[in-house]
Design a protein that fits this description.
Elements lengths: L1 E2 L6 H9 L13 H14 L4 E5 L4 E5 L21 E7 L7 H9 L5 E6 L5 E9 L11 E3 L3 E2 L8 H22 L4 E8 L5 H15 L2 E9 L11 H14 L3 E4 L5 H11 L2 E4 H12 L3 H20 L13 H4 L12 H36 L4 E6 L5 H9 L21 E7 L3 E7 L9 H6 L1 H5 L6 E7 L5 H15 L6 E6 L6 H11 L2 E2 L8 H33 L1
Parallel strand pairs: 1-3, 4-5, 9-10, 9-11, 11-12, 13-15, 13-16, 16-17, 17-18
Antiparallel strand pairs: 2-3, 2-4, 5-6, 6-7, 6-8, 14-15
Helix pairs in contact: 5-8, 8-9, 9-11
């Protein structure tokens, strides 16, 4: 393979082609003869020349480019192996290994990278060589070890083969040790700060999402970028840093706080070699993990398929296609006439069929839910819908209100995001009002993925049948005010912002006193602790006043309707 030879004379091309005939001793960086040939050619054409050499001493490719632009075969030999070849190239202007040389060594997992200084009249000078170090090596500050430079006539004295064998053995041993200890995926989180005041809060929330999904967060990175890079969001240099972090921390997962397009995800994965997820995929995974009832499972699958569909369609030529052997006009052999149905179209058709099936199933669920709502309306029992940010303590408060300490009445309450996805109703009692129905709804989150919002819209719209909203706020969490505002925006989008609402400032015992006082003044909320059953009496009194106000309004409307009916008669 001869790469990037534009502008060269035929004689120069022939000399480059002759490099393929050069063989070096297996396990060596190069030979004095090869170093001399490379230096002379590089001096002649005034450009860098790179040759790729395998472990048997054969030249695999020749490129007129630096190490970063050298032609490299696309080989992936596993996490515990190196690439199986090393790069030898020239530096026409002299100098040691560059940052680009070392980056190529690390990102491509080369056996080694070496640079030959070119001196006057094309004479080879010092040879600079570097190889990788095992992850977690004590005393090594970089991902590589740079050897002392040697004269070109000593280039074949370093035993690269023995070094590579020892390095791969060390990498494999370290991997086995880590695998024995690792029971969860290890993740690096990346949140891009474009000047938002809550960027750090978003990074912490991303960390909670990752933990809920079952990942072990080993590193969190807040990256400031006023303008995002089109392909990789953060740029090639930052991706290289993240790849290095993953190498040393044994991370196999890179999670972005921003939603990634299909092309962006593929480009980042190709650059880092890591599994790539974005915030939307993470939330979808959590919903799938915690979905219990038939309805929530259907809704989660519907959201996942809607998210996957454009990403499958965006794979383009990467998906295998079935083509006709001679075209439809020529009338190919039986069974192959015409272009055939592409795998792309098969995937699209199957997804569309499944989407239609799920939507029909959910229509039936919605009808049954509507019947239950009508039943509650006929009984004239007040309904209180508990809303709030995910993990604010809604389910714990419902258990405390209904004294549901044991199954089957107890609602699942865990210190995780989206621990419960199915709306759950329990009957409670409020002094002065009597029996009430308390409904625990799906937890909200800022920037809820649109596919999930569409899937759960019917569930969320059930909030509108309530008489009063009980908005639970985790006042002890950082950014409690922004989370409260995020819930209010979702309620406004659904058209429920003007409903009578009581705010419960939950986890008050763990909150900062100044923050608690500020939120009480700002929201008029009631400080409570659902876990310790503190402040519940005051909260019930506030709910009783709100429900009584709604009942008075309904009574006034009925009386007005009767008066109008009497006037009409």
């Amino acid at each position: 393979m001869l790469g990037n030879t534009s502008g060269l004379r035929p004689a120069q091309l022939k000399s480059l082609g002759n490099l393929y005939r050069r063989r070096i001793e297996p396990g060596r960086v190069g030979s004095p003869e090869l170093a001399r040939n490379l230096a002379e050619l590089s001096f002649d054409i005034r450009r860098e020349i790179s040759v790729l050499i395998d472990r048997r001493g054969r030249v695999l490719s020749v490129s007129v480019a630096d190490a970063k632009g050298a032609e490299l075969p696309d080989l992936r030999l596993g996490e515990n192996r190196l690439a199986g070849f090393h790069l030898l190239h020239t530096h026409p202007r002299g100098g040691a290994l560059s940052k680009g040389d070392l980056s190529t060594l690390f990102l491509k997992r080369l056996d080694a990278v070496a640079a030959i200084e070119v001196r006057n009249e094309g004479q080879p000078g010092l040879v600079h060589t570097a190889h990788l170090t095992p992850p977690g090596t004590v005393g090594e500050e970089e991902d590589w070890r740079i050897l002392d430079p040697v004269p070109s006539f000593q280039i074949d004295e370093f035993d690269l083969g023995a070094q590579v064998s020892a390095l791969e053995e060390e990498i494999a041993r370290a991997a086995r040790t880590r695998e024995a200890k690792k029971d969860r995926e290890r993740a690096i989180l990346v949140q891009i700060d474009q000047g938002e005041f809550d960027a750090e809060e978003r990074l912490e929330e991303l960390s909670e999402l990752a933990r809920t999904a079952g990942a072990e967060v080993v590193h969190k990175e807040l990256v400031y970028r006023r303008h995002l890079k089109a392909g990789t969001l953060v740029g090639a240099g930052k991706l290289e840093e993240l790849t290095s972090k993953a190498y040393h921390l044994d991370a196999d997962l890179l999670i972005f706080g921003q939603e990634l397009g299909p092309a962006q995800a593929r480009e980042i994965e190709a650059a880092t070699g890591l599994k790539i997820l974005d915030r939307t995929q993470l939330i979808l995974d959590i919903f799938a993990l915690h979905a219990q009832g038939v309805e929530s499972r259907l809704q989660v699958e519907l959201a996942q398929l809607r998210y996957m569909k454009p990403r499958l369609l965006g794979a383009g030529a990467a998906l295998s296609r079935i083509g006709g052997s001679a075209g439809s006009a020529a009338g190919g052999s039986i069974g192959t006439r015409g272009p055939g149905e592409t795998k792309l179209e098969l995937d699209r058709r199957r997804i569309n069929d499944r989407l239609a099936f799920l939507e029909k199933q959910l229509e039936g669920v919605a009808v049954r839910r509507e019947e239950r709502r009508k039943g509650r309306a006929r009984n004239d029992v007040p309904v209180v819908s508990i809303v709030g940010y995910t993990n604010a303590g809604k389910s714990t408060l419902l258990n405390a209100f209904t004294h549901a300490a044991e199954e089957p009445r107890r609602v699942l309450a865990e210190n995780k995001l989206f621990a419960t996805l199915r709306p759950t109703s329990r009957q409670g009692y409020i002094e002065g009002i009597g029996p009430v129905v308390l409904t625990d709804t799906v937890g909200f989150i800022r920037d809820l993925p649109k596919d999930l919002a569409r899937a759960f819209r019917a569930t969320l719209e059930e909030i509108g049948d309530a008489d009063v909203l009980l908005h639970v706020v985790d006042v002890a969490a950082p950014g409690a005010d922004t989370r409260l505002d995020a819930v209010n925006r979702i309620l406004e989008d659904l058209g429920f912002r003007e409903m009578p609402t009581v705010v419960a400032l939950n986890k008050a015992e763990a909150a900062d006193p100044d923050v608690l006082e500020r939120e009480v003044e700002r929201t008029g909320g009631i400080p409570v602790s659902a876990l310790k059953a503190l402040g519940l009496t005051d909260l019930k009194d506030a709910l009783a006043d709100a429900v009584a106000g709604v009942q008075r309004e309904e009574l006034a409307l009925r009386e007005e309707a009767r008066e109008r009916a009497a006037e009409y008669r």
